Amino acid sequence: MTDQTDARLIPSFVEQSARQRVEGMLDPGSMRELLSPFDRMTSPWLEQQGVVPQFDDGVVVAKGTLNAHPVVVAAIEGSFQGGSLGEVAGAKIAGILELALEACQLGTPTAAILVLESGGVRLQEANLGLAAIAEIQSAIVALRQHQPVIGLITGPVGCFGGMSITAGLCSYLLMTREGRLGLNGPLVIEQEAGVGEYDSRDRPFIWSLTGGEQRYATGLVDAFMGQSLSQVRAAVLDCLQQGVPEQFRSDTIEASLATLGQVDTEHQIDATRARAILTQEQPS
Amino acid sequence: MDTLLFLRPARAVPLNRTLVGYVGSGDLEVMIDRTDGHQAEIHIRTSTQGSEARWQQLIERMEVDHPLPAMRMDIHDFAATPGVIRLRIEQALELALDNRGNTHD
Amino acid sequence: MNPMSTDTQTSGPSQRGRTWFDALTAGMTAQANAVPSVRSADGELAGRPCRIVLVQPDPGNRYPRARSGEVGLLEGWALASTINEVIRADAQQGIKRAIVAIVDVPSQAYGRREEALGIHQALAAAVSAYARARQAGHPVLALLVGKAMSGAFLAHGYQANFIFALNDEAVLVHAMGKAAAARVTQRTEEELDRLAADIPPMAYDLQSYASLGLVEKLIDVTCADAPAPEDIQSVRQILADALGALNGSTDLARRLLGPNRAASRHVRARLREQWHNEADA
Question: What share of chain B is helix, strand, coil (3-state, %, to 5)?
Answer without folding.
Answer: 30, 35, 35
